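Postdoc handover notes: sequence design on the structure in folder B. Input tokens:
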């Protein structure tokens, strides 16, 4: 069973996926899995923030400054999104 992510955990995007902006969205390509993923605006911003090692809490802090969202909703949605990235091996927990 996979351990649940904590808000204080440091994460960074994995080096392997290729990414490209398409309009306001982002497309990620995992060559290893032969899969591509469409990521909407907020997900694209999370991906940008994970270019360097960052805590999930710091990601939420930044998103709350840029988007109209409360802390609880932001944390829940960011944790869910990063967990999905982790399942697809697109993010590294540090």
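Designed sequence:
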């Amino acid at each position: 069973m996979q351990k649940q992510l904590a808000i204080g955990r440091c994460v960074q995007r994995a080096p392997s996926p290729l990414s490209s902006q398409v309009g306001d969205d982002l497309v990620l390509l995992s060559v290893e899995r032969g899969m591509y993923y469409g990521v909407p605006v907020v997900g694209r911003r999370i991906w940008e923030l994970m270019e360097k090692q960052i805590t999930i809490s710091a990601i939420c802090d930044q998103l709350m400054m840029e988007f109209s969202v409360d802390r609880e909703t932001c944390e829940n949605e960011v944790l869910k999104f990063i967990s999905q990235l982790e399942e697809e091996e697109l993010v590294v927990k540090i």
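Context for whoever picks this up: The chain has a mean pLDDT of 91. Don't rerun without checking with the PI first.
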